[in-house]
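Researcher: Let's walk through a ligand-bound prediction step by step. First, I give you the protein sequence. Second, the SMILES string for magnesium ion. Third, you return the three-dimensional complex as structure tokens. Ready?
Model: Ready.
Researcher: Here are steps one and two:
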Amino acid sequence: MLEAVRLFRTPDALRDQFAIQISCSNPSREKNMITSLISMKGGTAKTTTAVNLAAYLALGQFKTLLIDLDPQTFATIYLGVEIQEAKVSMSDVLLKGSDLCDAICPTRIPNMDLIPSDRRLASVDLLLAATCGREEKLRQKLEPIRDGYDYILIDNAPSLNLLSVNALVASDNYVITVSPSFFSMVGLQTLLETVEVIKKNMDLKVELLGILPTLVDLRMKITSEYIELLRSHFQEKVFRTVIRQNVKLLESPAHGKTIFEYDSGCVGALCYIYFGKEFLARCTS
Ligand SMILES: Nc1ncnc2c1ncn2[C@@H]1O[C@H](COP(=O)(O)OP(=O)(O)OP(=O)(O)O)[C@@H](O)[C@H]1O
Ligand SMILES: [Mg+2]
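Model: Step three, the predicted complex:
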């Protein structure tokens, strides 16, 4: 498998290879799936997962939109997109009612668009609080464009604020990234309980698609123990794939490249290929 991936290094060949893999394993396509990547704890690889999953889907010829809803703008930087490339910013869309279409930027990767973040999103949270229908803004803005995409992924900041509530309201499902550490596990429980309260209060249908263990270093015994604990507690809700710690994944954002462009044969790329397959299987089952 590793060798097979290494053989396909040029973008065109890589794209064809992904298209074949995905169409073989997933003949039926679920349309218009909107997924939020969330976690209360920072640094659990939400952005790394959102960017590389979006790239995997796009390389498999699914029309994919990634929305960077984190004022840190890391997904935008990761993809090497300049915020000024968009005619309007996400802040304008949410606060001034600008058209969401004007915030969409193409990326280097065929089939993959990005709505970049901007630093002003940090204050949007506060400003939205005073507006009517504040939790529904993103869902309403996405409605006219969602038919144009197979998959829409939303990368969120490490908190459950009004922006991430907007993301959850707009989403069909959500993925939680969790690194195997004590604080991450505590944060996971708090997050699940908080989402349940939000769902109940707002009568939302958004479902947990799965919990993804990230930054996994299997050389440490404690890592396996945390993963076993996760699986025994949350059972099949935990993805079978774990994302291993990998230096190429650490390096790739600094080069503004997805892992498939940076080193398509590395362990990190393989982890995201396996995760991408599992994601598609869960979305279509
Ligand atoms: N599998 C991995 N192996 C090594 N480094 C990784 C891996 N995944 C992510 N990283 C690195 O860990 C750091 C945190 O990752 P990332 O920014 O994706 O997390 P995040 O959950 O989005 O963070 P935040 O909560 O601040 O938004 C980054 O420096 C990233 O490059
Ligand atoms: Mg992030």
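Researcher: And what stands out?
Model: Confidence is low (pLDDT under 50) at residues 1-10. The CA atoms of residues 246 and 268 lie 6 Å apart.
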